[in-house]
Write a structure and sequence with these properties.
312 residues; alpha/beta; Oxidized Rhodanese, domain 1; five-stranded parallel sheet; four-stranded parallel sheet; 12 helices; 11 strands; 38% helix; 12% strand; disordered N terminus
């Protein structure tokens, strides 16, 4: 009986110590003194240098991304290993990802870095809900002291169960046994525009549209409550028993949908297609897609995107 009581108490402590996927500013503040907590500020270096959470280490979002030709692609393991080691991360670290908190789209950067860290084997992870904007609005301290950490020897390995590959998606589309969720605004899903690096407008065959900003109050970067998130998921008519693959243009907005379903709602079978529609549309074999417009409309979209690149 005594051994059983000890086991139950130990499990309770473990559960209590488990990292919450979302932390409020005040919740993060109470954890800053813990040496195992590492705040990762993913804003640009200039913004970080001006003012940041005390002790936060700067690792700009771009360092977690692929090349400009396919920015959603997961960087090579050696590059990611060097990055996490430079911040002193280990399997025991509680990493808290902080973005600017500018808007719902900005939240996707936090979610994408969170997903990357989890893919690399870290398990104690959180996002600062509302980012630095919420921290500042709460009147919590900031400074401009550059923070560093002793490099670690952590050797991450890619957890492939969280990553949907192009080849896997081809099979999933043929079999129809997965739910494919397009996180982009409707104009992308419907083929009315495309990402600058994509070859064609449109979406994956059979995909449904669940726009990434549905998890936030309009104009807010604060992720909604669990109860509200359950309502959004129920309204989307997505079958939680089926494997779910989240995608967008470059795996940025899609990371928010992945985070909502996997981390907030606890769905066990959610993957992220990192390269998303840029990767899919660039395939030389001309992979099947839905909502691809006719050639005339494609040319109009091309002209509009060219003008944006040239004159903006």
């Amino acid at each position: 009986m005594k051994r059983l009581t000890t086991l139950i108490f130990g499990l309770a402590l473990s559960a209590a110590a488990a990292a919450q996927p979302l932390l409020s500013p005040t919740e993060l503040q109470t954890r800053l003194a813990d040496p195992q907590v590492r705040v990762i500020d993913i804003r640009d270096p200039k913004s970080y240098a001006a003012k940041h959470i005390p002790g936060a280490i700067n690792a700009p979002y771009g360092s977690w991304r692929g090349a400009a030709s396919n920015p959603g692609e997961l960087p090579a393991l050696p590059k990611l290993t060097a990055l996490v080691q430079s911040m002193g991360l280990t399997a025991a670290t509680h990493a808290v990802v902080v973005s600017s908190g500018a808007d719902a789209s900005d939240f996707g950067a936090s979610a994408r870095v969170y997903w990357t860290l989890k893919v690399l084997g870290l398990t104690d992870l959180s996002v600062l809900n509302g980012g630095l904007k919420a921290w500042a609005q709460a009147g919590l301290p900031q400074n401009d002291v550059l923070a560093t950490a002793a490099a670690s020897k952590f050797q991450p390995q890619i957890n492939a169960s969280m990553v949907a590959s192009k080849d896997e998606l081809l099979q999933r589309i043929k079999s129809g046994d997965s739910v494919l969720i397009d996180a982009r605004p409707a104009e992308f899903f419907l083929g009315d525009t495309r990402h600058q690096a994509a070859k064609l407008p449109g979406t994956l065959k059979g995909a449904v549209n669940l726009e990434h900003d549905k998890w936030f109050a309009p104009g807010s970067s604060i992720f909604m409550s669990v109860a509200q998130a359950k309502q959004v998921a129920a309204a989307s008519l997505i079958d939680p028993e089926k494997e779910t693959v989240s995608f967008c243009n470059t795996g940025h907005w899609a990371a928010t949908n992945w985070f909502a379903m996997s981390e907030v709602l606890g769905q066990k079978n959610v993957k992220l297609y990192a390269g998303s529609m840029v990767d899919w549309s660039q395939d030389a074999n001309g992979l099947t897609m839905d909502n691809v417009p006719g050639r005339t409309k494609q040319l109009l979209i091309d002209a509009k995107l060219w003008a944006e690149r040239t004159f903006q």
